[in-house]
Every structure is written in C-alpha cells, then in structure tokens.
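pipeline stage [seq->struct] | target=glucan endo-1,3-beta-D-glucosidase | organism=Prunus avium | residues=497
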Amino acid sequence: MASGFRLIFATSLLLALLDLCRGSTIGICYGRNADDLPTPDKAAQLVQLHNIKYVRIYDSNIQVLKAFGNTGVELMIGVPNSDLLAFSQYQSNADTWLKNSILPYYPATKITHITVGAEVTESPSNFSAQVVPAMRNVLTALKKVGLSKKIKVSTTHSLGVLSRSFPPSAGAFNSSHASFLKPLLEFLAENQSPFMVDIYPYYAYRDSPSNVTLDYALFESSSDVIDPNTGLLYTNMLDAQIDAIYYALMALNFKTIKIMVTETGWPSKGSPKETAATPDNAQTYNTNLIRHVINDTGTPAKPGERLDIYIFSLFNENRKPGLDSERNWGLFYPDQTSVYNLDFTGKGSADVITQANVTSSNVTTWCIASSKASELDLQNALDWACGPGNVDCTAIQPSQPCFEPDNTVAHASFAFNNYYQQNGATDVACSFGGTGIKVDKNPSYDNCIYMTAGSNKTVASNTTAISSTSSFATMNRVPTWVFSCLLGTFMLVLSKS
Ligand SMILES: *[C@@H]1O[C@H](CO)[C@@H](O)[C@H](O)[C@H]1NC(C)=O
Ligand SMILES: *[C@@H]1O[C@H](CO)[C@@H](O)[C@H](O)[C@H]1NC(C)=O
Ligand SMILES: *[C@@H]1O[C@H](CO)[C@@H](O)[C@H](O)[C@H]1NC(C)=O
Ligand SMILES: *[C@@H]1O[C@H](CO)[C@@H](O)[C@H](O)[C@H]1NC(C)=O
Ligand SMILES: *[C@@H]1O[C@H](CO)[C@@H](O)[C@H](O)[C@H]1NC(C)=O
Ligand SMILES: *[C@@H]1O[C@H](CO)[C@@H](O)[C@H](O)[C@H]1NC(C)=O
Ligand SMILES: *[C@@H]1O[C@H](CO)[C@@H](O)[C@H](O)[C@H]1NC(C)=O
Ligand SMILES: *[C@@H]1O[C@H](CO)[C@@H](O)[C@H](O)[C@H]1NC(C)=O
C-alpha cells in the first residue's frame, strides 16, 4: 500500500490543490456584440497582459477558442438561447457540437464551464422548457467523452428569477418560474454545478435611486443595512443580492449549490438620465469589487465562502441595443486602451494598469513588503512565499546574509522580491494580498543581495505548476474554503486508495 498510497496522495493532493484549493476568483466577460473589436488573438493577449485568469464567452467561436489555447486562461463558454431548441431535441446535436466545436481545442484551451442558455426568464420568447433538456444532453455528451467531471454544465439567470430580494433572508424565487427552476436546481445539485446569476447593483440604483444609496451600490457605504430577520449587517448591495439567492436556494432546501456571479459591472457612460454611469463610478465599483472578492471575505450569510465573479465586460460593444449605457460596460475601448484605470490584482493603487500597450520596459523594479501591513498578514505571506510559493528562503535564516534585521518586514521583503523576480516581475507577482509594493530602488544592503529579473532562474521546475496557478492573491487567508479544500483532499485520497 505504502508507495501506491503515497503516489496517489501526491497526485491527489496536487489535483486537489489546483482544483479546490483556490480562493475567490475574478474573471471577465468577453462579449463580442460589436463591429470594431480587435481580433480574438489580440483580445487574448490583452487578457493575459492584465493577468486575468478567467474569461466568459457567450458562444463557442472557434477563433476565440483557438486564441485562448495554451494561455492557461480558464474559459466559460456558452450555448446561445437560439440553439436551445436543437440541443434539447436531439442528443446527437449536442454530441456533434462537442465533437466538432470543442474537442479539437480541448484541453489546450482550458474549458471549465458551459452555460446552456442565458437569462432565459428575461427573453421575450419562452425558452425555459428547453433549458434543462438541453443541459442534460450537453452533460450526456460530456459523459461519453469522459469530461463531465472537468467541465461543469449550468445556465445563467438574471436577478429577476427572484420575486423578492430584500431583506436577503426573505429571498425567494418567483413562483411563476417554478416549473423551470425545480428540475434545474435538481440538476445542479446532482451534478455539483453552480447556480449562475448576473447581478447588477447599477440597475437597482438606477431604477430606484430613492431607496438605494449610490455609496451602498458602490461598496463605499459608511453605514450598514441590517437584515431584520438575521441581524446581519450589509455594507454593500452585491453581498445582499448574492445572499438573497442563497436564502432563496435554502428555502427550497438546496443547501449544497454554490453561487457564481457570471456578470456584474458598472457602465462608464450612459444617456443623460443615467447620471450614475460615469468613469469614476465604474472605476470605483470595479476596484472595490475586486478588492472585496480577492479579500476572501465572503458575504454576511456565508462569511469566508469563496466568491467567483466575472466582470462585465472586456470591451465596449457598439452593437448592443438599448440605452447608451448598454454600449459602455467595457474596461477597454476597441483600440485596447483603457476606459479607466483598473488594478486587476486588487492590491491598491489604481494607477498600475493604464495603457494596454505596456511595452516591456527595461526599468528594473523590486518587490518589498509594505511596512504598513499587519504583522499577521506579513507572516502569512512570508510563510506562503517560502512554502507553496517556492522561494528559496535560506538567506533569511539565522547567520545568513539577510537574517539581520531580524524582523518580519525585512524577511518578507526578501522573500516577496524573490517570488516576484522568479514569476515574471508582473504586478500580480507582487500582490501578496496587498502587502507587497513595487519599488525602483535596489533594496540590497551589505551582503544581502536582492535578486533582479533573470538573475536566478533556477526555480525547482517540479513544483512550478502550483506556484504559477496559485497566485498569492488567492492564497492569503484561511477562510472556509481552505477547510473544504483540505477535507476535499482527504476525501479524494480516501476514495482513491
Ligand atoms: C414558459 O413555458 C412553460 C411551458 O412551456 C410554462 O410552464 C411557463 O409558465 C412559461 N413561462 C412564462 C413566463 O410564460
Ligand atoms: C414573476 O414572474 C412573472 C412572469 O415573468 C411576472 O409577471 C411577475 O411580475 C413576477 N413577479 C414578481 C413578484 O416579480
Ligand atoms: C421604495 O421603498 C418603498 C418602501 O419600502 C416602496 O414602497 C417603494 O415601492 C420602493 N420604490 C421603488 C422604486 O422600488
Ligand atoms: C477584508 O477582510 C477583513 C477581515 O476579514 C475585513 O475586516 C475587511 O473589511 C475586508 N476588506 C474588504 C475590502 O472586503
Ligand atoms: C499601441 O501599439 C500599437 C502598435 O504596437 C500602436 O500603433 C498604438 O498607437 C499604440 N497605442 C498606444 C495607446 O500607445
Ligand atoms: C532599454 O534597453 C534598450 C536596449 O536594450 C536601450 O537602448 C534603452 O536605453 C533602455 N531603456 C532604458 C530606460 O533603460
Ligand atoms: C541561484 O540560486 C542558487 C540556489 O537556489 C544559488 O546557489 C545561486 O547562488 C543563485 N545564483 C544567483 C546569481 O543568485
Ligand atoms: C523533480 O522530482 C524528481 C523526482 O522526485 C527529482 O528526481 C528531481 O530532482 C526533481 N527536480 C527537478 C528540477 O526535476
């Protein structure tokens, strides 16, 4: 048993770490309802340039699938509503689609989710009866090729599936959709697929400015909204709306279904009446959203629960119908310049990412620990860097050149910089949950030499898979997902041995 068990343990642990043991994630929606967008290759480069690891698309366009091949970016793809009828009627339609449109690009293109239909309850045509049968056929097609565990099947909803969202504890699904939702929720529970919902505090504010404060919608509120039934305090509307879905699921006794926010965002421009659609508000919303998510705070009803959220959208889309705001949700203009500055790492200053054309500058930078960070955060970050982060921390051990000054800031600085230089000196590699800062002055002193990019590439190659997929931004707290991840690892080992 021993060696077999160890091997299984090692591979299970690795898989489990990669699969389960990641914190909250921030992705982006790549809508293409426009006639002036850059090619998918360019869009994929833009996404990588900004260290975005999760992308949602709305179809299975071959050029897009190819563009994200071998990028490491995880893709959520979609079956459009117009295909639901065909997919629901014949298994062979789902089989053929999978075989011709997906499998040729998989796994070079990392596809993790398939959304079968989108916000069908908002559609003027009533597609709802086709959704679950189409989902079943897609799942069956995946099962036939052994991918049903790797690719999750779900569908997206608007918040309009709720008849009530306030207070969150009274969240309830609209009973008009019961015949659609019941088999759907059973499918999700049975297949451990997430409940996907598009949540827009922007609309809640726009449509009801007298009942909702802008600050509350923008995560800037200084006062809390109290749920009178639970006593829970809500500081922002997104949390309240996510929790309304949790409670609606609980009310129907679906306690195991996770929630994924497949769209949220804020428009930077709108019609004259849409006064809140400004670049400043959009920047504030998305900046605060990213910080909130990567902080792994969870929501009041589910503290520490991992949040998976996709920002809408990558580009402004000039062919979207409706009010002006509809065409101005993008973080980037079609020429790939930023609509406003946004730091995707959530680490602090919003001026890190300004232009899409970041030419690889040859100005040397180093990454050190912020002296303002708490001792505990720094120690956690230091432990992470010297452990899962694969940094050689010999130099900060007693009697080694960087041991003095013997304090956490100094030791963390040395470790952060090593990690940063070994991982491409990108902004995200100096994130460390907001405790790392980039400097352009060499921090070396006496015999303690701080590495610069390229000065030492001898990183143990065996373990780089972990360090490159688990950026520190997602590894810094010990919320509930860590426990579920440890438990998951343990169960995996038990089930495989
Ligand atoms: C949609 O169609 C289904 C059956 O085809 C029906 O049960 C449901 O009430 C309809 N929903 C709406 C909103 O019309
Ligand atoms: C529930 O859905 C029906 C059908 O879409 C709609 O007419 C009704 O207004 C909704 N009820 C609530 C309370 O939102
Ligand atoms: C605002 O809240 C009041 C009282 O809760 C409610 O009656 C009213 O319908 C709300 N207005 C809007 C536009 O939602
Ligand atoms: C980050 O988490 C800490 C502790 O869990 C919490 O006090 C703080 O408000 C959170 N910050 C954000 C931006 O969510
Ligand atoms: C971005 O780079 C392209 C070609 O490399 C150039 O034509 C364009 O002007 C640049 N844009 C900005 C904003 O620097
Ligand atoms: C960057 O490198 C190029 C060639 O390697 C050099 O000509 C240029 O002066 C450098 N720029 C800076 C800012 O160091
Ligand atoms: C590179 O790292 C190895 C061990 O990790 C060390 O022995 C060597 O001195 C380092 N080289 C430089 C140039 O820092
Ligand atoms: C990787 O692991 C193997 C087996 O454990 C070991 O022989 C090798 O030295 C390790 N390091 C590298 C860099 O491959």
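stage status: PASS
auto-comment: The pocket of 2-acetamido-2-deoxy-beta-D-glucopyranose (ligand 6) is lined by residues 362-363 (CB under 6 Å). The chain has a mean pLDDT of 85.
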